[in-house]
């Protein structure tokens, strides 16, 4: 199947886009997002939808000005309104003690939500593809997170706003082919070829090996992440119900009954702890707390500078310092 066929099938089968939608397209100017811009332009000929393109200049690279112009020009050619936003990622990352990558993502979504509210848009579309998903799954695998759900195709971020990723089942090779065939302009971010970032190391070094072993590696990882996503959703629903029965959240502490907690399946207990942890929701912390509970270890465990964990009789408690 071609990029358009997968994109249109994904949207139709999953109801990601319906008549009357007002959709923000987050367009960086790279190959993936320019492909998405063209796909949605074609979709708008079939459906009654309104599109608004948004480009972000992170003030990190000189090329950003050229990228913004490329996005604006193609949007104008398609008759799509386009907003150019400038954000100070370095300042935001310093202020909030975040990596530049995380700061950029957080800022983009903050501004996208603001734009959605102003222009009464109900959906935000991003151009993540099947390779991005495979890289995310492998990153989590290497970090030992235990979560192979990958990038969600749909995520609700507020009452009236949903993020959709309709290109997620589409491989990067198909996107490259689509862009070539339609002679779409795009810009190349040179930082994508730097081996400083873990994601780039996986993209440039690991993924070619995986695809050499099995040319269907990206598709199989996507299928795995879909299975995990469905199972996660089911287990989270059950865990949330059980959490209400055994735990009580207060302003400066989280108290839970161990007798009730220990009656649950190990998987449910793990998820309950992950949801209860006020900070640092890492597997290592969850496993350590679980051991303390099973061994009735009453010593105080410092979870972070702001929180401690302790056990007293048949109760366990997270307490804010």
From TrEMBL:
Transmembrane segments: none annotated. Pfam families: ATP_bind_3. Keywords: ATP-binding, Cytoplasm, Ligase, Nucleotide-binding, tRNA processing. GO terms for biological process: tRNA modification. It comes from the Bacteria. Residues 22-203 form the tRNA(Ile)-lysidine/2-thiocytidine synthase N-terminal domain. Its EC number is 6.3.4.19. InterPro entries: Rossmann-like_a/b/a_fold (IPR014729), TilS/TtcA_N (IPR011063), tRNA_Ile_lys_synt (IPR012094), tRNA_Ile_lys_synt_N (IPR012795). ATP binds at residues 28-33. It is an enzyme of class 6 (ligase). GO terms for cellular component: cytoplasm. One of its GO terms (molecular function) is tRNA(Ile)-lysidine synthase activity. It catalyses: cytidine(34) in tRNA(Ile2) + L-lysine + ATP = lysidine(34) in tRNA(Ile2) + AMP + diphosphate + H(+). It is found in: Cytoplasm. SUPFAM superfamilies: Adenine nucleotide alpha hydrolases-like (SSF52402), MesJ substrate recognition domain-like (SSF82829). PANTHER family: TRNA(ILE)-LYSIDINE SYNTHASE-RELATED. Ligates lysine onto the cytidine present at position 34 of the AUA codon-specific tRNA(Ile) that contains the anticodon CAU, in an ATP-dependent manner. Cytidine is converted to lysidine, thus changing the amino acid specificity of the tRNA from methionine to isoleucine. Belongs to the tRNA(Ile)-lysidine synthase family. The N-terminal region contains the highly conserved SGGXDS motif, predicted to be a P-loop motif involved in ATP binding. This is tRNA(Ile)-lysidine synthase. It comes from Endomicrobium trichonymphae. The lineage of its organism: Bacteria, Pseudomonadati, Elusimicrobiota, Endomicrobiia, Endomicrobiales.
